[in-house]
Amino acid sequence: MQGLAFAFAPLREELSLHTGPVLADGQPSWTLEDPVRNQFFRIDWLTFEILKRWSFANPQDILQSVRTDTTLHPGEEDLMVVMQFLGENQLLAPDPRRSSRMLAERHQRMRGAWHQQLLHHYLFFRIPLVRPDRWLTRVTPAFNWLFSTTFARLTMLALLIGGVQVYREWDSFKANLLDTFTPTGVLAYALALVGVKCAHELGHALTAKRLGCRVPAMGVAFLVLWPVPYTDTNDVWRLNDKRSRQRVAAAGVVTELVIAIWSTLAWVVLPDGLLRSIAFPLATTTWLATLTINTSPFMRFDGYFLLSDWLDLPNLHARAFALARWDLRKRLFALDAPPPEYFPRARHIGLILFAWGTWIYRLVLFLGIAVLVYHFFIKLVGIFLFAVEIVWFVFRPIANEVAVWRSFWPQLKHPKQRRHAVRSAMLLFALLALFVVPWPTRLQASGVLRASQVFPVHAPVHAQVASLPLAEGAQVQAGQVLIRLSAAENDSKRKEVEARIERLRWQASSSAFDSEQRARSSVLREELATAEAELASLDSDVARYQPLAPFAGHLRDLVPDLAPGVWVAKNEKLAVLVGDAGNEVDAYLDEHLVRRVSVGDTARFYPDGLEGPFVHLQVTAIDQDATAVLPSGVWAAQLGGAVPAREKQGSWIPEHAVYHVTLAVKDPAGALAGRIWRGKVVIAGDWEAPGWRFVQSFAAVAWRELGF
What we know:
Layout: H1 2-7, E1 16-19, E2 30-34, E3 39-43, H2 45-52, H3 59-69, H4 76-88, H5 99-111, H6 114-123, E4 124-130, H7 133-139, H8 149-168, H9 170-179, H10 183-210, E5 218-223, E6 226-231, H11 242-269, H12 274-294, H13 302-311, H14 316-333, H15 345-376, H16 379-407, H17 415-436, E7 442-451, E8 454-458, E9 463-467, E10 475-476, E11 484-486, H18 488-509, H19 515-519, H20 521-545, E12 553-556, E13 567-568, E14 573-579, E15 583-590, H21 591-594, E16 602-607, E17 615-622, E18 645-648, E19 651-654, E20 658-665, E21 677-684, H22 690-706
Antiparallel strand pairs: 1-2, 2-3, 4-5, 5-6, 7-15, 7-21, 8-14, 9-11, 9-13, 10-12, 12-14, 15-20, 16-17, 16-21, 17-20, 18-19
Helix pairs in contact: 8-11, 10-11, 10-12, 11-12, 11-13, 14-15, 15-16, 18-20
C-alpha cells in the first residue's frame, strides 16, 4: 500500500459526475464526464464509492471508509484497478513537476512511429468541419414540427399510399431503376447519397439538441479513405434515460426513412420531369443505404448504438469480444480463469454468438474493402494497400490471439488442462487434415439419359399418310417399313416418266426401219438415259416416303393423330425408333471437375422427379475441347439444368468452360428404357484434397494479378 500512497494524485477539478441507469445486475451506475475532451465513462457502484472518498488521499482510509459505510468489501487490487483506470484515461490532476514530461511521453506513445501514424491516418481519421452547437440552439425550434405526432401520422399515410402505388406501377418502377445505370444516373445516385447522409447527421444533431445535449462538432471521417459524415453526440451519455439515448441513435435512420417515404410518394404523384427524376434516386438510394448499412450492429453505426442502448451495454463490441475470447480459450485449454463479466445464461450465450457473427461479418467486409482498394489504385500501390488491409484487419488480430495462447503454456502443467489442450490440438490438426489429405468425393452434374441408337422419322415435302403398319411401342426389325407415305404428284409424275421411257424405247427400236429416226438415234439415246435417271430419282424418293428401320428397336412417340389420308407438314417429326443396343448418358462438367474424371470411372444416374433405384454408369468418353454450344437447353440452368448458359439466336452458349462426358449404362435401364430422362449424374472421380482447389484458384488469381 505504500506504493499506492506514493503514486496517489487528486482528480481533475473540471470532472463532473452524473447519475446513470441501473445496470443489468441491479446495481446503480454513474457517468463520469470529461468536458475538456467531451468523453464519458460509465462507472459502477464500487468505483463511485472509491471516487467519492478520493479526497482522503490515503488508500487505507478510502478502503476502510467504504467497508464501514457500505456493504462492499474492496481490496487493494480493486483500488489498483481504479487507479489504473484514472491514469490511463488522464482523469488525474498532473503533477506540476513532471506533467510536461509525462504529457510529452504520453503524446509520443500515442503518436507512435512515423509508419504507425501513416497507417493510422490511412485506416481512419476525422476532420471536424463546423462547430454547430450555437446554430443548432437557434434553429432547433424551427424544426419542432418534424417531431410532432401529426407529421408522424402523415408520414405513415404517405408510406401507405406510396407503397400501394409503387406496387401497382412496379413494372414502370423497375424499368426506371434499370434506366438509371448510366454515368448520369450514377452521378445522381452519388449526389442523392451525399445529401441523405448530411440530413442523417443533421437528424442526430437536432434530436440531441432537443434533449438538451451539446453538439460540439460535425465533420467528415475517412474510413480507409472513404468519406463518411459524422456528428459528435457523446454528450448524450449524460442522459440517464436510455430511451432518450436511443432516440438520438435512431434519429439518423428515422431521418433517412422519412426522406425515402416522401420521395417515394413524390415519384408516384409527380408528372415526368426534373422533380420526378430527383425524387427517384432519393427513394431508392435511401431505402438501400438505411436498411443495409445504418441498421447493421456489426459495425459502429446507428444499429450498433441502438443495440447497445437497448441491452444497456456500453462498449458492446469490446465486451462481447472479450467474453468470446474467454469462451474460446476455456474450450481450447480448459483454463479456470473467471469470465471478464458475469451475465445471465441467455445473454452470455447471445453475446458470444454476437461476437462470432461480428468477426465473420467484418472478415467478409474487410476482404471486400481490400479488393476494392486494390482495384481503385494503380497495381503496385493497390497490391501494397491490399496487403496492409489484410495484415492489419485479418492477420494482426489472429496473431495477437495466438500470442496470448502461447503465454498460457506455463499454466498447462495440470494433467487435465494438458489433456484438454492436446485434444484441442488434435482436433485442429484433424480439421486441417480434411483440407490437405486426399479423400474420395462425388462429382455431381446434370445429365440426360437416352438410348444409344435413336432414329427420328421426319416427313418429306407434300406427304400424305398412306398406311400405318406399326403401332406405338411396336417391336421393329432392321429393314422393316416404319410408315408409308405418298404424294399424288409423285405418282402422276412417275407414270409420266414411265410412259416417256416406253415411247423412247419404241422409237429407238424402230430406228432401223426409219431413216429419219436413224438420224436421231444419238439424241434418242440421250433422252432415254435422262428419263431413266429421272425414274431412278423417283424410285429413291420412295425410300423417303417409306422409311426403313436402320436397326432393330421399338417405335416411340408416334403422333397420335396420324391416320391414312392425313397430310403432314414438311420435316414434321412423326415417330422415333429407339434401338435395343443399350442406353447412355450425356453430361457436362466444369473445367475444375473434368480433370478428376477418367475413362472407366463408375457413376450413377438419378432421374429427376422419380423415386426408385438408380442406374449404374461408366465413363466411356471425355471431350478434349470445351463445348462451344450446348445441343439443347435441357442442360441450361435457366431450364432446370446445371450449366450456366445464355440463349443467343436459339442456341445455348455456356457461360464458362464445360466439357462433354459420355457415360454408358452398365445395367438394363428397366422402366427408364425407351425414353429421354434428365437427372443427376454422380461420378466417383479421383481422390483429391478439398483445399487443393482453393490453392489452385488462389495461385491462378495471384499469377494473373501479379503480372505487370
